[in-house]
Amino acid sequence: MAIVIDALDLVRNKKRLPREAFFVDTNILVDFIDPFSRSTTDPRLAARNVELAEVIHPLKSWGSKSLSTASVALEYYKYIQVGFYKIETGKDRLDTEDFKRLRDGDLDFMTRWDHQLKVFKRLFSKTFPLLDVTLTLADVLSTFEGSKVDFGDHLLFKATLASDPKLRCVFSNDADFYSFSGEIYLLTTNRRVIAKAASESKLLKA
Amino acid sequence: MRTIRVVDYLGTPCLLAPEKGETLAAELKIELQAQNHIQVDFSGYEFLSSAFLNHAFGQLCIDLNWDTKTFRQRVLITNMEEDDLEDLELAIDNAQTRRGLILRGENPDQYYSSRLPT
Hints:
The structure holds 2 protein chains of 2 kinds.
Chain A: E1 3-6, H1 7-12, E2 21-24, H2 26-33, H3 43-61, E3 65-67, H4 70-89, H5 96-105, H6 107-127, H7 137-142, H8 151-162, E4 169-171, H9 176-179, E5 185-188, H10 191-199
Parallel strand pairs in A: 1-5, 2-3, 2-4, 4-5
Helix pairs in contact in A: 2-3, 4-6, 5-6
Chain B: E1 2-5, H1 6-10, E2 14-15, H2 18-34, E3 38-41, E4 47-48, H3 50-64, H4 68-74, E5 75-78, H5 82-103, H6 108-113
Parallel strand pairs in B: 1-3, 2-4, 3-5
């Protein structure tokens, strides 16, 4: 089971992250970047956005490496592609052929999509650079319990475990990471996970 | 052209809370009634959030019914880091989408909720 770190407590009390880096999960990226500006009118999403900025900016400025994996990049890309298409067209689902037609021929669509891609590329090259991690695919599949966890979370967990022990920390607000068995730290702002970890003596103390 | 120095005006280099963005937007609206152009200087800031940008500049475009071109013509942003300028570009794009929805009589929150996971 992961050792949980209360992310807000860590930065507000200027404590040290016990690892040199953290890997971000897709839910953190979506809330931190807010690619469709939902925080404009949704106070709950605005609070999540501010909370994550309050954690990520100081950690990076204090020298922690912020990393991502190819599976997270793919999940984020699909999120913005599907969301962007649905918002721009008003349609209920992605029509990939129509997406390509708009991307290649509709100036407004092209310009706005280009801005999303610019942020996407910067995110995974600079803000949260992709780390090359070698996974044994047979192991990834044989250990995947699809009835319990999402495949994307499983891939991120496996990538974190396959990385240098100094880097084994995941920043996620998905409660599933708490139950993964392995020597990793789970950095989170999820109050329920933090409370559960505290009651089970799995919360990191300073 | 008048210059607003954001860090001095808001009294903090941490530009995170949406309320700070709203405060800046309110000042910009007052100034823009009196003059055509304004410079918004970000010298000395440390951190910026998307929520701040949405409330400061995205909401300004929506409230004043500005397209991207008008925003660029009337508001000059200086001393903002390149990465944050990209996030600002996204905030202005998204404000245009919201403007379009409002003009069509749609409620942006309902529209987004039915198309994006929360």
